[in-house]
Amino acid sequence: MAARGRKPASLALKIAKGETPARLGLDVPGTNLSTPEPPETVRGNPEVLEEWNRIVGLLAEMKTVSKVDRPGLVLYCGAYERWREARTMLVEEGYMEARGTGALMESPWVKVMEKAESFMRRMLSDFGLLPSSRHKVRESEPVKHDELADFIKRKSRKA
């Protein structure tokens, strides 16, 4: 189901219009930084693994990737794999195919490719990799070492 109303303006446009960073929620903390490992289904396909590494690399540069992103990345890569297969089939077989009566109809691979593209676009938006969605994603900070917690643990063990 499509979102209602206008698409939200990009962060750059909001800042250009004079919005303050505090009003935009730029001080919201993110999740802990960590790079998720690809599952076997992704590692088994070199093209999909290359896309995994590309997307995770972009998210790492933006400092927004976390191990909790793994399921979403797996779903994205599955859609990418379907998109590649559909695109390959369309290149080989063409966008139109003849029916039994001789009439031409659109190849079913067109619909497969369009659905995969739509899903990939939604996932890219969720990850903040589209211009209109980039403002929704915040940079994450690495977990800081808590010296006080370590001190309390050491003291409680001695007691």
Helix content: 40-55%
In what order do the strands lie side by side in the largest sheet? Answer: 1-2
Shape: elongated
**How would you name the oligomeric state of the polypeptide chains in this document?**
single chain
Most strands sheet = 2 strands, antiparallel
The number of helical segments is 6
The tally of structural domains comes to 1
* End-to-end C-alpha gap: 59 Å
Number of strands: 2
Computed Rg: 22 Å
Which residues form runs of ≥5 with pLDDT under 50?
27-31
Mean pLDDT score: 81
Summarize the helix and strand pattern as letters: HHHHEEHH
Beta-strand portion reads under 5%
**What structural category characterises the helix and strand content?**
mainly alpha
List the keywords:
159 residues; mainly alpha; two-stranded antiparallel ribbon; 51% helix
Architecture overview:
With 159 residues, the protein is mostly helical. The chain has one domain (18-142). The chain contains 6 helices and 2 strands. The protein has helices spanning 11-16, 40-43, 46-61, 70-93, 108-126, 147-158; strands at residues 96-98, 104-106. The protein is elongated and about 85 Å long.
